[in-house]
Amino acid sequence: MRQIPIKRAIERVPGGMMVVPLLIGALIATFFPGTPKFFGSFTGALFSGALTILAVFYVCMGASIDFKATPYILKKGGTLFAVKIGIAMLVGVIFGHFLGEAPIPGGIFAGLSTLAVVASLNDTNGGLYMALMGQYGSPRDVGAYTVMSLESGPFLTMVTLGVAGLSAFPWQTLVGSILPLMVGMLLGNLDREMRDFLKRAIPVMIPFFAFALGTGLDLSKIWQAGLLGLGLGVAVVVVTGIPLFLADRLTGGTGVAGVAAASTAGNAAAVPAIVAAANPAYAESAAAATILVAATVVVTAILVPLVTAWTARVFGQPQERDKGTEEAEADAAFVPVSPGSR
């Protein structure tokens, strides 16, 4: 039987495994809203099962994170992690002061919210970062994502919104948001076979929770949200890219790793729905924020490789040297995640 390259076609779209199923779900919800009720059973459950799928996803994601990181990885990854989260908190405080929890109700910025901005800034596209570092960086720079992967999930977004002075979350909710990731980390570090078993599921689950998220979106607002998403995506690259570039230079890098981290992860589009489920104060912002973040994923996936390539050409790539003990340990400590998983 002749094969149709469905997977390859989807992956040609930036963030395709997240964006394409999300749009399919949104199309069904917009033009055939009665589908889940009509079919019921497992089909209906898939339309409303985003949070359950995401809980499993974060266990598997956590299992891919190795505790054994070298000092270089901790320095590089920790610096990039701290800078990106710090920027998100600063911007969150500013937007939270003017917007609060609600989105902008009208005008060209309709739908923009503190939730959308913070979710776009908080989480780096790890697959994109690792692919770019594989081309323009060094193995140790690739390994820095071991620390940066702690950005995954809604926990830091919830913390950032609390720091911004907006509606806070009870400690049980905060712990619950990071618990699946931590359980996965524990399992993966106690048993390497369990790590290998769980991490293979990471890319598989992305299209399923993306589809479920898409079924809650209203495409009548997609054009306006798309234009905002374009602007928000450019803003993420600029606002985070410059400080990350400087931070990378200060830690002995060329700046390339910093620029490569100035993106938005595909699974960040899931964060608004999770945050709204945890605190109803953000329910009004969640739908538009999901569309905005999804658009930002696409925009940053296109821009960041271009800017990274330019940075490598202008400022140079890391000098290759004989692999010493530190770099060898970094390679051993790094647990790769598939480039399509984030």
UniProtKB/TrEMBL annotation:
Query: Which locations, inside or outside the cell, does it occupy?
Result: Cell membrane
Query: In the UniProt record, does the keyword Transport occur?
Result: yes
Please name the InterPro entries in this protein's record: 2keto-3dGluconate_permease
Q: Which organism is it from?
A: Skermanella stibiiresistens SB22
Database matches in HAMAP family: KdgT
Q: Where is this region: Disordered?
A: 320-342
Topology relative to the membrane, per the entry?
Multi-pass membrane protein
Which sequence ranges are marked TM in the entry?
12-32, 38-60, 81-98, 104-121, 142-163, 169-190, 197-216, 222-247, 259-282, 288-312
Signal peptide span: none
Tell me what this protein is called: 2-keto-3-deoxygluconate permease
> What is the reaction catalyzed?
2-dehydro-3-deoxy-D-gluconate(in) + H(+)(in) = 2-dehydro-3-deoxy-D-gluconate(out) + H(+)(out)
GO molecular function annotation: 2-keto-3-deoxygluconate:proton symporter activity
Keywords per UniProt: Cell membrane, Membrane, Sugar transport, Symport, Transmembrane, Transmembrane helix, Transport
